[in-house]
Description:
Number of helices: 14
Radius of gyration: 24 Å
Helix content: 25-40%
Bound molecules: 6-O-phosphono-beta-D-glucopyranose
Number of strands: 18
Structural class: alpha/beta
Strand order of the largest sheet: 8-12-13-7-14-15-16-17
Low-confidence stretches: 1-15
Strand content: 15-25%
Amino acid sequence: MNDPTFANTFADQENQLKPAQPCVMVIFGATGDLTARKLMPALYNLAIQGLLPKDFACVAFARRDKKQEEFRQELYEDIKKYSRTQPVDDKKWKPFSEKIFYHQGNFDNHDDYERLKKFLATLDKQCNTKGNRVFYLATQPSFFPVIVEQLHKHKLVYNEKVEHERWSRVVIEKPFGHDLNSALSLQKHVKQFLEENQIYRIDHYLGKETVQNLLVFRFANSIFEPLWNNRYIDNIQITMGESIGIGTRGRFWEEAGILRDIVQNHLMQLMSLVSMEPPVSMGANAIRDEKVKVLQAIRPIDINNVDDYAVLGQYGPGYINGEEVKGYREEDNVDPHSVQGTFVALELFIDNWRWSGVPFYLRAGKRMAKRVTEIAITFNQVPGVLFKGKVDKKGQTLLVIRIQPDEGISLRINCKVPGLSALSIQPVKMDFRYGTSFGETPPDAYERLICDSMVGDGTLFARGDEVLTSWKLYTPLLEAWQNRPRTGFPNYSAGRWGPENANRITEKTGRSWRLV
Ligand code: BG6
């Protein structure tokens, strides 16, 4: 039987994408960075591909006073700058822009929601949107509870048990809470007003093609899965390096830091997809059940010996691509004595039958030498009886799943160097590249996710228990770091792969970080 939250995402019965349903999308925080850089370009690209519902409107809700035309003009500029498809097609831009409406309002103001309600009713008549709503919360996290409560008070979200003709969904941006307790209370709060299947907790990594391909790669090929366990795998390294710094987000970053911004969500999504058991179906809940199970099996970090498992770093000034860049403490809105982390390296273990004893090494950082996200799976060495001294440790079979950029998968294997002289063995690479095989740029993650929210498919969104399990793992570490003096920051120069002492995480067992 199909999972109730049936997924179209990977493949439904006919392998057809369900069409997005008529709706109005209301974006809260519509003058913010996320809306400009990601949400509006994604909507525009959906529009030009014909993937937006025919009956559609978008209401941009924000606090600033702005005229409709002024907002649309700003949008046009943003799309020129950030859309993945260029140049902007003016013929398609015009009808698209006419579906976007600016609504000035405060997130906690009764009258502003009443006005919104009336306006949405007018749009339903004008655009035939049938009362269906996607509310996208792209504001600062502190507004999430307020907005959800206001939506409920003004009957803008529906009780799905009673209403069958129309639907309302709420997309909540990350971070969902800032530790276990705050995530639990946010969860409790939103659950008073919404059913779980109305809540779409976004983690845009799940919208990436390469991330969706992880399950296809694992479960649609017969040769990898039999090896996918502690009998054949030596270690798994998940790296998310960014060459950019924290940009204009100093204030947010001072509160969040690397664990909250990147590890607790994006890296844990990658880790759970690469390590979970095969789900019973491709349904949303079946996949999410397996992700939660594996997250629950991660061994809690030993807080008494934190330094053996986790290293925190902060970038100082340095060079990226030959250009001089500031250190974290010199960035805008950052305390000049800040001890916030911009790099982290971790060793985790999954205490289950499949993974017992296999270290998972995770690292993420800002201002690394280059932008790269990848999962590297190193297989065990062969028994050293035949080619003694010829196959060195560094030549272990290695599978690299490149999430971005240069999306693809490569397998490093050992090969005989051709020739008549003494036997020599050298590692060579078998390489698959998305660009070469498919010849087109994959859609942006937000396109996929926005589309899924209009279709009603929650597979690529995080379920409440997933988020909470991840917070449960990281909250003790956050507290341990908070409760002891952190000295010696900054401890890596911009343009390097984190501090020197990150090496001790892998070196204590004779392994090393992969050079990416
Ligand atoms: C966001 C983080 O969630 O992901 C940013 O808040 C980070 O700090 C970004 O830069 C990375 O996303 P991507 O898609 O560029 O890898």
